[in-house]
Amino acid sequence: MVSLPQEGMKRYKAFVTYDGTPFHGFAPNPDVETVGGKIRDSLEKVLGKETNITCAGRTDAGVHAEGQVISFDAGPIDEKQLERSLNQLCSPHIGIRSLEETDPTFDARFSAKSRTYRYQILNQDYPDPFLQRFVWHVHDHLDTDSMQTASTMLIGEHDFSSFCRKRIVKIDGLKTEASLTREIHSIEVTKKESNIIEIWITASSFCHQMVRSITGTLVDVGLGKTESYTITSILAEKNRNAAGRVAPPQGLTLMKVKY
Length: 259
Description:
By secondary structure, the chain is an alpha+beta fold. The chain folds into 2 domains: 10-101, 2-Layer Sandwich (Alpha-Beta Plaits); 119-258, Alpha-Beta Plaits. It is built from 5 helices and 12 strands. It has helices at 35-47, 79-90, 144-151, 210-222, 231-237; strands at 10-18, 53-55, 64-74, 94-101, 114-122, 136-137, 156-159, 168-171, 174-177, 181-193, 196-203, 252-258. Strands 1, 2, 3, 4, 5, 6, 7, 10, 11 and 12 form a 10-stranded mixed β-sheet that branches. The chain has a two-stranded antiparallel sheet with strand order 8-9. Strand 8 and strand 9 (174-177) form a beta hairpin. Helix 1 packs across helix 2. 34% of the residues are buried.
């Protein structure tokens, strides 16, 4: 349920980009530096009061964003001045692309219709030190055609237990496993350049490590370790051990959130 701003407060949204390399994920954590913690602390420094933020996607440690969206409540503010102040305080690894007042019912997480992630793979013999923060280096040749064929079997609504970590939640005071059913709208495996392979995935939402697990499995298909037609049986097993490895975090970027 989306809460409304308290009396005298307004709701704001901001589009955020960041290099996730130095951070322990997005979610604020008092023991380590996180993207959300850095933004929240900067907001509180400027606004002079405790501020809670909501994000569209709680990215893991080392994962990046070009199109992250956050929402928060504050009193009437000079939006451009706050944007400039946040960029000064959050640089060099976080940038606030825009900040504006929004509808009081807007929630960065619950108002989102879909999220789009991109995973980048450097597919060549030697590593590239200028790209290593943003790609997974796979030196053996990948067959992108077989990867695309396999990916189409994931489109639609499925139980993605084979590609996600199980999570325990409380419902009416009772502990139960969270649903891992998600709907993937599209997957594209493309070659941006002769040595850069990109996997683009859009879904209504994602469970923990879902994109990275899908990527690891598709890479196994591309390497010839797994046949493309086995994706259907991997889904049916609903067992994390049935799918491939979890791809490393640095190749993953949250690109866009649709509202």
